[in-house]
TrEMBL record:
Lineage, highest ranks first: Eukaryota, Viridiplantae, Streptophyta, Embryophyta, Tracheophyta
Function: Catalyzes the reduction of fatty acyl-CoA to fatty alcohols.
Recorded coiled-coil stretches: none
Domain spans labelled Thioester reductase (TE): 17-319
Keywords carried by this UniProt record: Lipid biosynthesis, Lipid metabolism, NADP, Oxidoreductase
Keyword Lipid metabolism included in the entry's annotation: yes
Source superkingdom: Eukaryota
Entry protein name: Fatty acyl-CoA reductase
Enzyme class per UniProt: oxidoreductase
E.C. numbers: 1.2.1.84
InterPro entries: FAR, FAR_NAD-bd, NAD(P)-bd_dom_sf
Length: 385
């Protein structure tokens, strides 16, 4: 698809984006602004005490980042600030609450009246997150988003960012298939999402009655999430609650078109707006940095094990192309897209070792004494059956 179609598509559109302080959403936001400065309005939902604090948080945690350097240089400081003032609406809210936690009734009515497209990128991505937190954001956050979307009179579609890990641990090609309500990966026990919510509430009530410490509550609810996930066939709380989020979207979407994007591990930018931008340590980063510091001596896995990774700008492009390709449908649709690399361009552990060794031999990290850190090849401990 030609990039011109994306640019044309975005012109004069009102777009709602959740999870805007997250890594992927930032790159998506930058792409929209850089591609089409004539977008009409960008409604960006984030947690804050009030609108002033939300606006300041956006400037500090989003627009001040190096990621937006190209846009700032291209437009100039004055035009960049004018865009933010006129077209970016900082929406005080929280997807884990009804009406996305938007208490400003005038703003809420405006959004229901004006929004053309909704992109839900809000999520908690910690694999062993507290079960109440993960359910609130990843599962019932999706309920709140779809309920809000169905009240938007102009909305054309909802695009939801999920994860490839909802498919669980399986071999071979995984079809781009939607989950139905109550489906489990084990196929033996039927899943009741509202019973899961009630279970969490009962556990939390019991812990509070026992005057449990915050540490005990957190530990207990983390263990509960992992236990429930494995009971139904998922490896962790994150993938389990994201799968349930997909289920409720399909169940409650009514006549709304729904696109679900499932990326695997997301890495730094490949090309846009420039190569190599990343925020924080992600996926393999902690191990790569540990190797560069000389701390990682061995790694458990197979040399030919494939790690499915995808640059974040490729995910962003898929989101935009998916929106353009399925806009203005005469009938509502529900489509799933996997956005991975393991089939066409597999990245193995042996490649990771080769690339990191080359990188840190050429550009070694410096220790606290100001000397380069020497690295050796990591020993892969393969399991043989």
């Amino acid at each position: 698809m030609e990039s011109g179609r994306v640019v044309e598509f975005l012109e004069s559109k009102n777009i709602l984006l959740t999870g805007v302080t997250g890594f992927l959403a930032k790159v998506l936001l930058e792409k929209i602004m850089r591609s089409q400065p004539n977008v009409k309005k960008l409604y960006l939902v984030l947690r804050a005490e009030n609108a002033t604090a939300a606006t300041q948080r956006l400037r500090d945690e989003v627009f001040s980042k190096e990621l937006f350097r190209i846009v700032r240089e291209r437009w100039g400081t004055e035009n960049f600030n004018t865009f933010l003032n006129e077209k970016v609406i900082a929406v005080v809210g929280d997807v884990s609450s009804n009406n996305l936690g938007i208490n400003d009734s005038n703003l809420r009515e405006e959004m229901w009246r004006e929004i053309d497209f909704i992109i839900n990128s809000a999520a908690t991505t910690r694999f062993d997150e507290r079960y109440d937190v993960a359910l609130g954001t990843n599962t019932f956050g999706a309920v709140n988003v779809i309920n809000f979307a169905t009240r938007c009179v102009k909305v054309d579609m909802l695009l939801h960012v999920s994860t490839a890990y909802v498919c669980g641990e399986r071999e071979g090609l995984v079809p781009e298939k939607s989950f139905y309500m109550g489906e489990t990966l084990k196929g033996t026990t039927r899943l009741n999402i509202y019973a899961e919510k009630k279970l969490v509430e009962e556990n939390l009530k019991q812990l509070n009655a026992q005057n449990a410490t915050d540490k005990t509550i957190t530990s207990t609810l983390r263990d509960l999430g992992m236990k429930r996930a494995k009971l139904h066939g998922w490896p962790n709380t994150y993938s389990f609650t994201k799968a349930m989020g997909e289920m409720v979207l399909g169940e409650y979407r009514e006549n709304m078109s729904l696109i679900i994007i499932r990326p695997p591990g997301i890495s730094s930018t490949y090309k846009e707006p420039f190569p190599g931008w990343i925020e924080g340590l992600r996926t393999m980063d902690t191990k790569v940095i540990g190797y560069g510091k000389g701390q990682l001596k061995c790694f458990l896995g197979g040399s030919n094990t494939v790690l499915d990774m995808i640059p974040t700008d490729m995910v962003v492009n898929t989101i935009l192309i998916g929106m353009v390709a399925h806009a203005n449908q005469t009938q509502s649709i529900q489509i799933v897209y996997h956005v991975g690399s393991s089939l066409r361009n597999p990245l193995t552990l042996s490649n990771i070792h080769k690339f990191t060794k080359c990188c840190f031999h050429t550009n070694p990290l410096i220790n606290k004494n100001g000397k380069p850190i020497k690295v050796n090849r990591v020993q892969v401990l393969e399991q043989h059956g």
